[in-house]
Design brief:
The chain is α+β, with helices and mostly antiparallel strands and 451 residues long. 48% of the residues lie in helices and 19% in strands. It has 4 domains: 11-54, no CATH class; 78-114 and 237-392, 3-hydroxy-3-methylglutaryl-coenzyme A Reductase, Chain A, domain 2 (Alpha-Beta Complex); 116-232, Hydroxymethylglutaryl-CoA reductase, class I/II, NAD/NADP-binding domain (Alpha-Beta Plaits), CATH 3.30.70; 399-445. It has helices at 16-27, 32-41, 47-55, 92-104, 131-148, 150-158, 193-212, 259-275, 277-297, 302-313, 348-351, 353-361, 367-390, 395-409, 414-423, 431-442, and strands spanning 68-76, 79-86, 110-126, 162-170, 178-186, 224-232, 238-247, 323-328, 331-339. Strands 3, 4, 5, 6, 7, 8 and 9 form a 7-stranded antiparallel beta sheet that branches. Helix 1 runs antiparallel to helix 2 (32-41), helix 8 (259-275) crosses helix 9 and helix 14 runs antiparallel to helix 15 (414-423). The chain starts with 15 loop residues before the first helix and ends in a 9-residue tail after the last helix. The structure holds (R)-mevalonate. (R)-mevalonate binds next to helix 9 and helix 13.
Length: 451
């Protein structure tokens, strides 16, 4: 098919069946009807529910399912949680649950919210020679600005939030005449993106209007060019710290390793992730296996959370582990410090029925409580991953999950699963070896293994 034939105008105006029919015809020429049926087979049977999902995005043709699991036994700040997790990678929920269970018997997770400030900027250029004049202008109009945005901030103020600080920054090292109006806000239980962006756009207007008539500006100085007004997803001051600790001898034994050896090896592994970018990236990826899963399950923005976390991990110029581990006075300590700008009201938390259920499952937490739980899941996940890495290796657990996936692919019956689990304790797992084992079992003959 020539590329030109795949061009289309007005696609968004098509009905959903028309969209699918067009895609099937142009992109799945071998089996258009089967593909069309497959896309349609994932539509929600409840028309209203489907309408809801279609409303969340554009040009929707189907739904992309992700597994929704739960990790019980999370003891965070002396409260027990069963945590919802949406993730497609096998063994993540199992690892979080195992980390949770491990620390449940050792006092649980201690999560402290350090601060909850969110940030946004109006980026602008002012070509006046003297920055002092710009600062005077800003100081003169600041009270007016704060007053003028009251209609936008009033409700948030009633909930205990609102503008925390409004300041002006001059950054000529980025560009000549470049300034930022920096807005810091408390958005309580809301993620607050719309709230922040609306205020910033209002501030931009005021900035240009007031400059235009400012008594101390000459003709050139009256011109302010707004480049953009947008919140920042870098929220180092929306921060939570989660900590676990126990006496080293309470760690127990790990396969052929005693508790002391384990603790020392664990601390070494974390130290490597604090200094080596290759290891740090994988180490932090493991943390976000847990964090993202809860963030998605609760209807929060995982792209914002990840972008911020990785920027925070590089805050001193080198990308490092977000967690830290150490031994002090005979005790093993493990800690995660991570920025988490999440909300528990508004946005998708309200619209997505399962996000709503996730929050109910967590006891309808405040944003701060949710930050505490998510940090605990990140730490549990990291603990379970590093524990595996420094003891048995990661493949043992992974391959077990992989075996389950292959068995489910071949629709193995319960007695076949039992037989396979026993057999593959000592054998290498691969797609073909499992298929051969099942064939042999089903034919009642001896398994022939090919690798
Ligand atoms: C796999 O998704 C995550 C791990 O690689 C994390 C880590 O290495 O710490 C196991």
């Amino acid at each position: 098919m020539r590329t030109k034939e795949k061009m289309i105008a007005g696609f968004s105006k098509f009905s959903k069946p028309e969209k699918i029919a067009w895609l099937a015809k142009h992109f799945f020429t071998d089996n258009p009807m089967d593909v069309a049926r497959e896309f349609a087979s994932f539509w929600h049977t409840n028309v209203e529910a489907q309408r809801l999902f279609d409303g969340m995005s554009e040009n929707t043709i189907s739904n992309f399912y992700m597994p929704y699991g739960v990790a019980p036994n999370f003891l965070v700040n002396h409260k027990l949680y069963c945590v919802p997790m949406v993730i497609e990678e096998s063994s993540v929920v199992a690892a979080a649950s195992s980390g949770a269970k491990f620390w449940y018997t050792r006092g649980g997770f201690d999560s402290q919210v350090v601060s909850t400030i969110k940030v946004g900027h109006v980026h602008f250029i002012w070509n006046g020679i003297d920055p002092v004049k710009m600062y005077s202008f800003f100081n003169d109009i600041k009270p007016y600005m704060l007053q003028a945005i009251k209609p936008l901030t009033e409700n948030m103020e009633k909930r205990g939030g609102g503008v925390h600080r409004l300041s002006l920054l001059h950054l000529p090292e980025i560009e000549n005449g470049y300034y930022q109006l920096k807005l810091e806000v408390e958005t309580c239980d809301a993620m607050g993106a719309n709230f922040i962006n609306s205020i910033l756009e209002e501030l931009s207007k005021i900035l240009t209007d007031k400059a235009n008539t400012y008594y101390d500006f000459n003709y050139t100085e009256r011109d302010i060019q707004i480049i953009m007004a947008i919140l920042s997803n870098y929220t180092p001051e929306c921060l939570v710290r989660c900590h676990v600790q126990c006496k080293i001898n309470e760690l127990g034994n790990f396969e052929d390793m005693d508790a002391n050896e384990f603790a020392e090896k664990f601390v070494r592994a974390v130290n490597i992730a604090k200094k080596d970018v290759y290891r740090a990236t994988t180490h932090n990826k493991g943390i976000y296996n847990g964090i993202d899963a809860v963030v998605i399950a609760t209807g929060n923005d995982f792209r914002a959370i990840e972008a911020c976390g990785h920027a925070y991990a590089s805050r001193d110029g080198q990308y490092r582990s977000l967690s830290d581990a150490w031994i002090a006075d005979g005790a093993f300590h493990f800690e995660l410090e991570v920025p988490l700008a999440v909300g528990t009201v508004g946005g998708l938390t309200k619209i997505h029925p399962l996000a709503h259920r996730s929050l109910q499952l967590l006891g309808n937490p405040s944003a701060q409580e949710l930050m505490s739980v998510i940090a605990a899941v990140g730490l549990a996940q990291n603990f379970a991953a590093v524990r595996s890495l420094v003891t048995t290796g990661i493949q043992k657990g992974h391959m077990k999950m992989h075996l389950h996936n292959i068995l489910s692919h071949f629709a193995a019956a319960p007695h076949e699963i039992d037989a396979a689990l026993t057999y593959f304790q000592e054998q290498t797992i691969s797609f073909s070896s499992v298929r051969n084992f099942l064939d042999a079992l089903r034919n009642q003959s001896k398994p022939i293994i090919t690798m």
